[in-house]
Backbone:
């Protein structure tokens, strides 16, 4: 694992998200609670809706295009046979860290 | 021969360590105890009762002079340690050196001081030790105003203590809810209510900009320019491990002094314990793990090795009258399920988090009697499969009929209170059911159960089902969503009657079954709250659909459309040039004239939105709200200005209406039109409000539709003057804002309440009409502004990616 500091926790509002650009597309970084972060693929497998723009509730997000709901922890779509990629995250001293190794794997794929 | 042991710091952990070492082998060490404070070990977690006056210092001393004398401990109190010389194995105190064989660093933590101007003024105190506590007690004797910065455990205890001592206390908290590390929003809402009842003023999302004063503190200024008077400021925003001595001595320090499971630092003869350490990435602030560490360390020092493991801890707040409990991990997750119990009448909230048939977290407020039982279930990882149905009712209700989903209700004793408003217990309801009240309405008139606020309706219905079995058919009201059994109408009514002014208040008081709603209910509740309490409630962007959060319409490829407002459909060359320039500059692929008489720029990249808005703002263009559940357009024809048939200035009236109404949020989108004559070129007769000008004045039609349904407007009234036309329009829209269900267009709402009901309020009752107009104006004092300008100036950052790792890879 190689942890990359991508920004401050305070840069993402609670129940909000921001994107991080990577080689092969955007990763959506969600803040579901005061100190809880998830990173997943930003593209909904249905019609590529930008998940980072969805409404965040509990540990879930609803896609803004057609209301598919995803669990951010597992990446599974609720009630659909689909899933999105999830990436390890860490919070340290108020900063958000993403695992560079996992993101490069995505790039290589 | 005895080894020489030096302990730096006389806090909770070191006190326990000395006891453990002396109990196991009193002959092993010559102990020297340094403490920067001029006193020995006392129970720091009891400082809050000392502050509030419930205890004295003498009562919280854990080790007195006699103890140190009896155990032959050399006390160097009131003396700072200057350095640790590891090469010579000596500790350098202010009054001289002491040699050691083994050294324990127990320096605890230091309060975090926020770096704002004025932080060093006299009258600004922290809350860590007895001197701080005494300083606060001293300040409180003079009375006056105190501001506590930080709404965590420590801050709230300080605030409650100062308030008990007669000060007028305001708590400032940076986050959206109090004690966010220990509580979820619902529990924090109840805590806030209780603290406010005690006279504390609480401001959340409060960011301190400066502490004001010349010779001593006089006030606090917030980032939003709110000024607060203060005679005393307490900083309780957090703590950080006190690691300076270790760092200077070259011992490995991360956030805290790094130790292994034997509490050993990177120097094998030096150990550390308590709040100053970091173990496996964890820091420690509660007392239970500190005691564990002290026990392990005693073993390490005496060759009785043991290993420290991080365990769950439970939190309780030491403020009289605020009963809360929090333990374990209560965040949500895929494999996790919540069991939520709310009793609004008693102010009780309990939430259990379950994963793989194990209880992993618990948050409780108002009734924490079962807290330790739940904490045991968490610590012992007890399987809870067998008692799941009744788990939340606590240990007293285990062992009922598990197969029946209604068993929790069935298991309640006859004296259990079901309806808190009217004090009706289960026995009374069951008796009434046996006496013939076999449906909800009859039961309500017989017992008054669920007849007031209605939040216990679900329970009462379950009792009907338990008692009558299949003879009772559960009614089918259309609930807002899966988070509640209440309908939109019920929720709106309860928000008004119970004066619920925040989302956590709605979730708690109306018994939401999820921690923070879902994508269906959140936008609705957000609207209801801002419509009913425009000054008290602040719009929550995170509860809005992306279009309303980003003030642009998301397109199928994730790009956005930008539609500037053209008042009444009128524009000019300067505006058109600015639009053309913006389309060029941002590579807008499609420019389209809309049905609402304005121009749509389609395909703008999300990141470009603040910049394009800024450019359009410079030409005087503002948001057209083409994305909102709010006023969209007022379509007009050219009226008397140019048209040979025009009877009134339809364009002028359209512009006036649009300037009056823009920016307002409504249950669904609202479209208006004003036609200058009955030829109706502006197609006013299929709008939410459509005005047709005639020689004698204005015909006002409402509740038209031209979308999924097509429907002609119904005549609300004919009026003679332009002002009356404006008044009736505003009053109609406000009545719609106050009463309609979220996502009902006016035609659907009017069909439900009837045009007569609307007319009686908007047209006939002049007092009500003017109340509606005033209420609308009050709301517009907050919302009649351009969100594009606001976002371009203050929130542009949030439209950009948080980071761009593609750049890094290229380097």
Residues:
């Amino acid at each position: 694992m190689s942890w990359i500091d991508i920004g401050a926790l305070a840069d993402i509002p609670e129940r909000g998200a921001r994107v991080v650009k990577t080689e092969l597309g955007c990763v959506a970084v969600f803040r579901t609670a005061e100190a809880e972060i998830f990173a997943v693929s930003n593209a909904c497998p249905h019609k590529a809706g930008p998940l980072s723009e969805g409404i965040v509730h509990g540990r879930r997000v609803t896609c803004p295009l057609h209301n598919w709901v995803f669990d951010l922890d597992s990446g599974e779509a609720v009630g659909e046979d689909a899933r999105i990629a999830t990436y390890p995250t860490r919070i340290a001293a108020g900063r958000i860290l993403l695992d560079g190794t996992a993101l490069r794997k995505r790039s290589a794929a | 021969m005895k080894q020489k042991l030096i302990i730096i710091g006389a806090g909770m952990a070191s006190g326990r360590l000395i006891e453990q070492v002396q109990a196991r082998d009193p002959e092993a060490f010559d102990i020297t105890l340094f403490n920067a404070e001029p006193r020995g070990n006392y129970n720091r977690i009891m400082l809050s009762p000392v502050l509030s006056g419930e205890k004295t210092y003498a009562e919280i001393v854990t080790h007195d002079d006699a103890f140190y004398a009896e155990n032959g401990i050399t006390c160097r109190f009131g003396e700072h340690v200057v350095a640790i010389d590891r090469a010579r194995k000596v500790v350098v105190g202010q009054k001289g050196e002491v040699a050691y064989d083994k050294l324990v660093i127990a320096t605890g933590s230091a309060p975090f001081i926020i770096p704002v101007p004025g932080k060093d003024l006299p009258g600004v105190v922290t809350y860590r030790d007895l001197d701080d506590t005494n300083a606060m007690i001293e300040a409180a004797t003079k009375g006056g105003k105190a501001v506590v910065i930080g709404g965590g455990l420590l801050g709230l205890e300080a605030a409650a203590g100062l308030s008990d001592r007669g000060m007028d206390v305001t708590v400032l908290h940076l986050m959206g809810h109090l004690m966010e590390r220990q509580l979820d929003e619902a529990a924090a809402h109840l805590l806030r209510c209780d603290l406010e009842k005690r006279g504390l003023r609480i401001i959340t999302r409060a960011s301190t900009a400066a502490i004001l004063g010349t010779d001593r503190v006089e006030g606090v200024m917030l980032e939003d320019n709110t000024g607060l008077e203060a005679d005393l400021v307490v900083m309780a925003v957090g703590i950080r491990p006190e690691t300076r001595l270790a760092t200077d001595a070259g011992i490995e320090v991360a956030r805290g002094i790094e130790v292994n499971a034997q509490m050993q630092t990177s120097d094998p003869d030096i150990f550390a314990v308590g709040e100053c350490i970091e173990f496996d990435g964890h820091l420690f602030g509660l007392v239970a793990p500190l005691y564990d560490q002290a026990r392990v360390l005693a073993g390490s020092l005496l060759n009785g090795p043991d290993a420290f493991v991080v365990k769950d801890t439970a939190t309780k707040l030491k403020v009289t009258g605020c009963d809360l409990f929090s333990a374990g991990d209560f965040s949500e997750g895929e494999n996790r399920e919540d069991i939520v119990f709310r009793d609004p009448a008693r102010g009780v909230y309990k939430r259990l988090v379950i994963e793989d048939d194990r209880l992993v977290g618990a948050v409780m407020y108002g009734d924490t009697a079962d807290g330790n039982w739940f904490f045991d279930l968490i610590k012992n990882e007890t399987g809870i499969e067998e008692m799941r149905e009744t788990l939340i009712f606590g240990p007293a209700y285990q062992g009922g009929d598990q197969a029946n989903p209604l068993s929790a209700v069935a298991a309640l004793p006859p004296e259990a209170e079901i309806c808190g408003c009217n004090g009706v217990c289960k026995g009374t309801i069951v008796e009434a059911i046996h006496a013939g009240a076999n449906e909800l309405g009859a039961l309500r008139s017989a017992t008054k159960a669920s007849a007031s606020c209605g939040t216990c309706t679900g329970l009462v219905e379950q009792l009907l089902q338990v008692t009558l079995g299949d003879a009772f058919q559960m009614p089918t009201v259309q609930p807002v969503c899966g988070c509640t059994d209440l309908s939109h109408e019920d929720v709106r009514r309860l928000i008004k009657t119970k004066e619920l002014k925040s989302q956590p208040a709605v979730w708690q008081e109306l018994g939401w079954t999820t921690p923070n709603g879902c994508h269906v209910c959140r936008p609705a509740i957000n609207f209801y709250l801002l419509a009913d309490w425009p000054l008290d409630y602040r719009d929550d962007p995170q509860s809005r659909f992306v279009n309303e959060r980003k003030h642009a319409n998301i397109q199928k490829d994730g790009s956005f459309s930008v539609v500037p407002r053209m008042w009444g459909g009128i524009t000019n060359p300067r505006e058109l040039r600015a639009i053309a320039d913006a389309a060029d500059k941002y590579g807008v692929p499609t420019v389209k004239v809309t049905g609402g008489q304005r121009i749509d720029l389609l395909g703008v990249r999300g990141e470009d939105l603040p910049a394009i808005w800024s450019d359009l703002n410079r030409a005087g263009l503002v948001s057209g709200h083409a994305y909102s559940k709010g006023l969209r357009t007022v379509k007009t024809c050219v009226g008397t200005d140019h048209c040979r048939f025009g009877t009134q200035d339809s364009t002028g009236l359209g512009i006036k209406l649009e300037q009056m109404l823009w920016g307002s949020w409504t249950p669904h989108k609202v479209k208006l039109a004003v036609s200058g004559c009955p030829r109706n070129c502006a197609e006013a007769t299929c709008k939410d409000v459509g005005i047709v000008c005639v020689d004698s004045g204005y015909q006002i039609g409402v509740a038209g539709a031209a979308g999924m349904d097509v429907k002609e407007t119904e005549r609300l009234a004919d009026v003679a003057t332009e002002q009356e036309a404006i008044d009736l329009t505003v009053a109609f829209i406000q009545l719609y804002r106050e009463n309609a269900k979220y996502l009902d267009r006016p035609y659907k709402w009017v069909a439900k309440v009837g045009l007569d009901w609307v007319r009686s309020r908007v047209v006939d009752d002049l007092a009500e009409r003017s109340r509606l107009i005033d209420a609308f104006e009050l709301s517009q004092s907050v919302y009649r502004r351009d969100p594009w300008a606001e976002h371009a100036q203050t929130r542009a950052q949030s439209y950009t990616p948080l980071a761009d790792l593609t750049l890094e890879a290229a380097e």
About this structure: Chain B is about 35% helix and 20% strand. Confidence is low (pLDDT under 50) at residues 400-405 of chain B. The interface with chain A takes residues 175-176, 180-181, 255, 331-335, 514-519, 522-523, 541-546, 549-550, 554, 556-558, 606, 797-798, 801-806, 808-809 of chain B (CB under 8 Å). The CA atoms of residues 36 and 557 of chain B lie 64 Å apart.
